[in-house]
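Acyl-CoA synthetase: structure, please.
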Amino acid sequence: MAMSIYEQGLDRNSANFAPLSPTSFVERSAEVFADMPAVVHGSRRFTWSQCRDRSARLATALREAGVGRGDTVSVMLANTPEMIEAHYAVPGINAVLNTLNTRLDADLLAWQMNYCEAKVLITDSEFAPVMREALARLKQVYKRAPVVIDVCDPEYAGPHECVGQIEYEALLAAHPPMPRLQGPVDEWDAIAISYTSGTTGDPKGVVTHHRGAYLNAVCNVTVWTMPHFARYLWTLPMFHCNGWCFPWTVALLGGVHVCLRKVETKAIFAAIRDHEVGYYSAAPIVHNLLIAAPSEERLGISHKVRAMVAGAAPPASMIEGMAHLGIELVHVYGLTEVYGPAAVCVQKPSWDEASLGEQVRLNGRQGVRYPLQEGMTVRDPESLQEVPADGKTIGEIMFRGNIVMKGYLKNEAATQTAFQGGWFHTGDLAVLEPDGYARIRDRSKDVIISGGENISSIEVEDVLYRHPAVLACAVVAKPDAKWGETPVAFVELRPGAEVTAEALIDHCRTMLAKYKIPREVRFEALPKTATGKIQKFQLRSKASSEEVPE
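Here you go.
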């Protein structure tokens, strides 16, 4: 094929092309908004110039420790300034950030650090006991000993134990700032590795790239119409999907990171009030805690607050409760493999004319693809044909585009399976409604088949959430000799609330077909991930291990 005239003498060069990377957002905000606030944490305050300086000092220190392109830096940190700086410094030297889940045990932490071949570990003193054990196991079992840097956050009230060779602030003081956070050689280079162990027992290392992180950070702005200097509260753990790319979104806007070590309702409302926070993200359980909080905790908040919810389909009671608090809710959907949220339930102006019940139904859907995600559809997982948009035919949600992972680290078979047919398979079962919005019916493993009939656990949970005594719930299959499976409900009550199992079953009878009603209700604390996502696999295991009733 002859060369086009537009290919002659028009090559890319350093003047007209640069790899996309969110590190550029940090450099720009430091240039343009140098003296404006960037980070708030307890008594500590940093401007964008100071935040960039601290990140660039960390970058220099890491480089002198031998960290370079493709090397992994693991971090075991709370939502503190050091966690933000790691999100800027590590990609800034083209290394790979591995944010560790602070709720994991030592064995799994050691396994993950070995699997991604961590060269450096940055760890908060709060986690010293478990990390000391993890590092010992890493050395004894895997023969690996990363350089360890200790963070002693003054907002942590416990003992400041150290497990490494150098303290974080001393490290920064000993190194000059790198002239520029350079970013990647290639935008396809890995920016992070995150493990998907939240709701399954089979962790896989999800490798994401600079291009996707850059684009999803921009998408966060567009789906929320976020302004310059937005104040964002860190209720979402930054270790979860790199905080849904919001560390980089806030940098893009020259905004303010309002840090929070622990997710407690009083602290959340105080931060919103004291720092005029306009935005935060969380799983449904956190929003429900805010709804259930004492009214006096909410006093003094008069400005507009917008919240993003993901992790599970928000129940109707939660959507209604947030509206009652005056917090505007945006429902997003995604997975670790698509950088956190990559779909949004876009609220159309015409929905304002609908009844409250219809608004709740519309806003409870998973919605449509993010603006910079190329494709989102519901397809038959076998034929890969798109299902009709009839709101009835069930298929699997699939994504394709720039906001999709590179693949699973050291697991080519799982990567190929996930990308079968040129789409990323989420494993979430959904219908496509006539307006093109997707609505999840269930994870494939969460569908309960009772007497040949399919029962959506989400549908049953939504009914349970409508009872005023229910704070959180999960419905799973329990083996049954006659029906094969029957639904059993695990319920966590609101503080001070009382209700019987019989009363909840009677409540379900008013809204569900007989075969969908839970045969049993159990009251207990539900196992959750650090982001508040209920770990159904543990409940399924508990229900399945019992004697099958006759």
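Notes: The chain has three domains: 47-222, 263-443, 447-544.
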